[in-house]
Design goal:
This protein is α+β, with helices and mostly antiparallel strands and 160 residues long. It has helices spanning 58-66, 78-91, 94-113, 120-140, 145-158; strands spanning 7-10, 13-25, 28-35, 43-46, 52-54. It has 2 domains: 7-54; 58-158, Methane Monooxygenase Hydroxylase, Chain G, domain 1 (Up-down Bundle). Strands 4-3-2-1-5 form a 5-stranded antiparallel β-sheet.
């Protein structure tokens, strides 16, 4: 069971446990969760909900970011890449999200290097992957969202 003040992942959002209501609805204990990206929202979630999980550890967070350059990019035909992005985002593992970020970043960098417009599709999927990954990493690594973004892209640049 989590305590008031703990950070958890609910679905794909980082939330802080604001309160615990004992025997609240249907005689069940509930967490009152506040997503870190929307303080005005309060979610009442049963404590036994399988969609709640702990954040990764500090060591895991560092290993995840450090692994970005060892990850393969998504090497697939342009016509099929969107379905692969969707699949990886739905699975939502840290590695999958980093793979989407790395692939979209390199595809857009290649376009810019060749004086072409970046792809809206790649830009949108990169933003989604960042939205799912960076909040957890930023809490774990004690960085702001923008610092996390800079940290990941600096790691990616080091590998080029």
């Amino acid at each position: 069971m989590y305590n008031v003040g703990d950070y958890v992942i609910y679905l794909k959002d980082v939330c802080q446990v604001e309160n615990i209501k004992e025997k609240y609805m249907n005689d069940t204990d509930y967490y009152i969760l506040v997503p870190i990206n929307d303080n005005s929202l309060k979610l009442s979630i049963p404590v036994n909900n399988p969609s709640i999980r702990s954040l990764i550890s500090l060591d895991e967070g560092r290993k995840i970011v450090d692994s970005i350059n060892s990850l393969d990019i998504i090497a697939i035909d342009d016509k099929l890449i969107e379905s692969e992005y969707k699949r990886l985002l739905a699975e939502g593992t840290h590695e999958d999200l980093l793979k989407v970020i790395k692939t979209t970043y390199l595809r857009n960098k290649n376009r810019v290097d060749h004086k072409r417009k970046i792809s809206d599709k790649d830009k949108n999927y990169m933003e989604l992957a960042e939205k799912y990954l960076f909040p957890e990493l930023s809490v774990v690594l004690s960085m702001s969202y923008s610092e996390m973004e800079e940290y990941v892209f600096n790691k990616l640049q080091e590998g080029l």
